[in-house]
Amino acid sequence: MHQFVFQQGLSGELQLFPHIIELGAKKNQAIHLNSFPQSVSECIRIYYVNEGKFEWSVNDESFILYPGDVSLIKPNEKFGSGKGVLEIGSISWIHIKIQNHGNNELLSGRWSSLSETESQAISKVLLMNNMPVLSKLPEVGRILRYIHDEIFNQEIGFSTRANQLIDELFIIITRHLTKQNNRGRDFPKVFMQLEQALRQNLSQQWTVEEMAAIAGMGTTLFNEKVKSYTGFTPLNYLINIRISEAIKLLKKIDVSITDIALDTGFYSSQHFSTTFKKLTGYTPSQFRKNNLSYD
């Protein structure tokens, strides 16, 4: 296996790829002390095991990886070997910078050909993932090799092709991750976890595609499952969640109605007021006044 390490700021090969922090491949033939210490990640890290058996730690939890396995490390996660050493074998990896857009953390920037909706859906799945090891995903190893070849050989169109391969890498990992997370789980459990994710991020403008991706389903199946389970379409169910959270906040007299509207994901206080009255029969101000009169 060809060994290399391209590092941003040190390797000219990455000059056109500011979003790639590091790209590398290593065949380790001997164990050395402090060769793989634990550190806190500042980006998305993806490691692929080509050969060997590796025992790595993510946030002080141990995982064993075999050939074909992938480790997905998120920003602020502690990662490395609990023993501080890299076992004998070979690995490939890529580190990708996270782009910040207001309150949203997105993987893609101008380099990506993903639409904003697709990027947000993939980002939410990856960044909310709590399973750092993906089993048997050889496509990742193949794509990492192709990315290296494009950047190293620099043939016509190499920049565009390399970035397309990075998009493909995230798509494949996200699809595999949602299937792995959803395997063997019944929909009520999946739905409860989805609802928890929605409630924790109500200020975000969720789309059906993003919700379906978190549930590990296509949009058509997801629509059918939610309608069958709740009696509502996904977006109508989301509105009900927004209103239920708003009701809790309206009981706090020190929180303004405008802040409540924005915190629960409405475009404006007027939009919030119209929707609230439609579902409850009261405007937010009337509901707060009536609620306080009973206290």
Task: Describe the protein.
The protein is α+β, with helices and mostly antiparallel strands and 295 residues long. The protein has two domains: 4-182, Jelly Rolls; 185-295, Homeodomain-like (Arc Repressor Mutant, subunit A, Orthogonal Bundle), CATH 1.10.10. It contains ten helices and twelve strands. A six-stranded antiparallel sheet has the order 1-2-9-4-7-12. Strands 3-8-5-6 form a four-stranded antiparallel sheet, with no helix packed on it. It has a two-stranded antiparallel sheet with strand order 10-11. Helix 8 (257-263) packs across helix 9. The mean pLDDT is 87.
Q: How many separate structural domains?
A: 2
Query: What is the name of the CATH superfamily of the largest domain?
Result: Regulatory protein AraC
Write the H/E string, N to C: EEEEEEEEEEEHEHHHHHHHHH
* DSSP strand count: 12
- Write down the overall mean pLDDT: 87
What is the count of DSSP helices, taking H or I runs of 4+ residues?
10
N-end to C-end Cα span = 72 Å
The poorly predicted ranges are none
How would you characterize the largest beta sheet? 6 strands, antiparallel
Q: What oligomeric state is this?
A: single chain
- CATH class category name of the largest domain: Mainly Beta
| Overall form | elongated
Give the strand order of the largest sheet, numbering strands 1, 2, ... along the chain.
Answer: 1-2-9-4-7-12
> Could you estimate the helical fraction of the residues in percent?
40-55%
CATH architecture of the largest domain: Sandwich
The value of Rg in angstroms is 23 Å
Structural class by secondary-structure content: alpha+beta
